[in-house]
Amino acid sequence: MNKFIRVDMTTKQVTVDEVPAKYAGLGGRALTSNFVADEVKPTCHALGKNNKIIFAPGLLSGTTAPNSGRISVGAKSPLTGTIKESNSGGSFSQKMAKAGIKALVIEGMPTDDKFYVIKMDINGVTIDEAPAEILGGCGNYKAIEILSAKYGEKVGIALAGPAGEHRLPSANISFKDPEGNMRSAGRGGLGAVLGSKKVKAVIIDDTGAGAVPIADPEKFRAASKVFAKALLDHPVAGQGLAAYGTDVLVNILNEAGGLPAKNFTAGRIDHNDNISGETLNATITERGGEGKVSHGCHPGCIIRCSQWYPDKDGKYITSGFEYETIWGLGADAGIQDLDDIAYIDREMDDIGIDSIETAVAVATAMEGGLLPWGDGKAVLDAVKQIAVPTPLGRILGGGTAVVGKVCGLFRTPVVKDQAIPAYDPRPIKGIGLTYATTPMGADHTAGYCISGNILKVGADIDPLKKEGQIEYARAMQIGTAAVDSTGMCLFVYFGIADNPGGYQALIDMINAQYGIELTAADVDKLGESVLKVERAFNKAAGFTNAHDRLPEFFEYEPCSPHNVVWDFSPEEIDEVYNF
Amino acid sequence: MNKFIRVDMTTKQVTVDEVPAKYAGLGGRALTSNFVADEVKPTCHALGKNNKIIFAPGLLSGTTAPNSGRISVGAKSPLTGTIKESNSGGSFSQKMAKAGIKALVIEGMPTDDKFYVIKMDINGVTIDEAPAEILGGCGNYKAIEILSAKYGEKVGIALAGPAGEHRLPSANISFKDPEGNMRSAGRGGLGAVLGSKKVKAVIIDDTGAGAVPIADPEKFRAASKVFAKALLDHPVAGQGLAAYGTDVLVNILNEAGGLPAKNFTAGRIDHNDNISGETLNATITERGGEGKVSHGCHPGCIIRCSQWYPDKDGKYITSGFEYETIWGLGADAGIQDLDDIAYIDREMDDIGIDSIETAVAVATAMEGGLLPWGDGKAVLDAVKQIAVPTPLGRILGGGTAVVGKVCGLFRTPVVKDQAIPAYDPRPIKGIGLTYATTPMGADHTAGYCISGNILKVGADIDPLKKEGQIEYARAMQIGTAAVDSTGMCLFVYFGIADNPGGYQALIDMINAQYGIELTAADVDKLGESVLKVERAFNKAAGFTNAHDRLPEFFEYEPCSPHNVVWDFSPEEIDEVYNF
Prior knowledge:
homodimer; Aldehyde Ferredoxin Oxidoreductase,  A, domain 1; six-stranded mixed sheet; W-dependent_AOR (chains A, B); electron transfer activity (chains A, B)
């Protein structure tokens, strides 16, 4: 990966440079965050011409390393105002890496009103006008079909959906997956940044690319084998996720009393059987047809937590049907019918809007009287309005913080204006520390303390107690920042957390690829340095420790069934970033 | 003024205490801001049970001092997240002061869903259930009629309109004026705070109250006379404002090239004659009927800048028809018909929504495609929807920052999420420093540098140059914080800025009333101390110098006709608060 591509959308000029030396050892989140910190003015407007957006494959992307196909996207976020890295599956990362492209930077802003498609291949970069038929409300499923027909069925595609075209703060970036469906860099509104630059899509065609060079192929193969075994041997990474998808968590979290219900007014629901991973699996199996219990979101995935959810006639409705989405609509918004939830999930993918932000926005809108509680049909209709967008669609597309503002609510579950996902921080205290302190705004993937608090993988910490949580949330965030830089799916953590050999194999693969000698300590240092860079950006953008706080209602509204409140002091919370 | 009243809306308990010693010498903004800083947790949610709202007459309110009838309201703002003082005319302040009430604090939050009316008189405080007919969309004009019929025609009334009931971030607090119409504590959404506490209205009945005690009545009378003469002798305070209202500024600002047009994309309009103060005056005069060219917004006002604007049949449409509102709708949103603007102004008053925030939100919504440019009828219809509220009404009632978010705009004219009013900061640099640095969020009244930049009252500074602006913006903010503590209308500044005797007379009145010996230096110190308290609150709430910035587009989009950009460096801006 020796090419560093810049596309200036003001001038439509393309520059293909060698990778700057300072970025040579970085990939994924480490690269996107360092780049944004280096080149984006922290106080700039996220939708103005001075923001820049960067796509970067992880360090291991493009290789045969299992689960190494995550693509990182970075920019200043229009949702949170913070620095943002959001990563996704799909085939984009592997193809970019194979084509030797370390990063694509899109900067500037056109003065005309046209939308464009940026196409990269091994020969260079072209900027085309976007086909009219994929604009103006065309859904992502259709747009991928049209773009695949035009640019080739096997190309990788990154796409701003209708939500991104309208620069809505919850717009995601959708990436074509191996079967032509989508995965998303969901959080933080990066689709709106792409839309602000009038880039409808980015195409990567790796035709003619050779294999990614590996310095020590034998060592790489050996390490890769150990690593794959570590994943497959683990009950969560190797079995649970493939069988039930991430939705396996519904029953686990409900049992733990940490499944936020009815806009975070309780921690448990009665209709968990309607929406659980077990029901999801049984329904897919029973309906057959195009349904798939398990598939991978990117080439090389061996965890295969995704699935195709079919309708009663066996026809595909949606894929990548994640726990957090199902929780948001099913528990937080109280929609009891899994089919209703599936159609809404499909719609959100088709519009290109973050399914976590939107599901929580929907639940908050229900509390605010904008939508009837638990009404899946009404929600589907409302979510469709995001593509137009109608005023209601704009409110929902504005994200949970906007809904809270226009409904005058104090129970608005956001940190740094990003929606709190599917794990209540009162009875699961570790995850609350991640929500509060990560530079990303509320984000479970930034330090998944559910692992040690609930799943007891990698650690065993009482979720109801404060003991050990600060150190754990710190370690998880540091480790995650490092993993997010490798191109690895976060779920590899389950396979290596309690398996030192598996962890070493991950490091060995990097060393074998690049001919270097990283140690575990180096990896920690990398994670720490990424977090420090991100935090410094946020500080310059105006964020302080006062923003590292959960919404106040968590402090005085107890969460049933455990009837506990959020009770970390500001001083304790601030200890998480004491490194 | 020896009573300090607290109403706890959680328990419905009322406490009437002596004024705490630390607040004895404070009034108006000095009192509200010190109180909020003392008792409100800066990181609390502005619409949660831990915010408190305080009403405080100025130091001179209740006396015969001309123009001393402003009431200050303070709380944490749901619009900006900062500390907020918003003040208003009407008869409330004078009556509260006469009844001996230094402050009314409303705290807590009911657990039921009813709305209440708090009634204060010289005997005590009662809490009644609000009459059903003033709830659920009843306009303020009607509500004042009903409340006056119930509590007495002469009572003072503070009111949360439909916008406040719905806790919209732009909701104002409306105060009954001497003729039964309204004035507003407009900015910062304090009506939403009142609404969150389920207080529909506060009544002050001063029946039976004696005169406010004056330590040295003779000295007071003498000073009052000098002060009144200073106001009446001044061409702006004594003549211009009475003749043309604040709308006199349309032609002045247009001529100066600092009248923001079409969502801040230019500094001058061609249709200024349609909406100017001269036209306003001529129209009122010509139409006759209930029209009044000039009247005072509170008892004791001798500047009389307000007016009653009648329809073609001479029937009252609206009063308090201010320049900033007319600018916002007429120039920023491009509505060319003054009658259209008047009907919208009436509607905003009736709904209880800040006419500056809403007018700018309307213009921003036009840029975002939510409303057609310049269409007064469409805007009236949209503004009416705020009372319902429909989704569009909620977006507009959410304020300009929300409109910018849901429309994905970078040209969103706000500072600290509060709309920038009627003076472009690029060609009038002094006011830009006030917008950027005042603890209130963009607010021209926090340091009205238009005075020395454009009107050449009190100073003569080239508006297009940076020289002298930092010191001037600092001095104006300090002086304003002091004036806001006296109960004086800000326009007294015009009368005393170039008249040392007039200024001394203001100080003499305070000294004569309280039997003290304040000097001009003490007044400055008071102003400085208020700003420091406010800024400390904001800092603890998470605000930093990075928030003391204008929107980025001012830095790179030149404003015609002078074609200048905002060019103060961050370091220069930060010098304003170097005291």
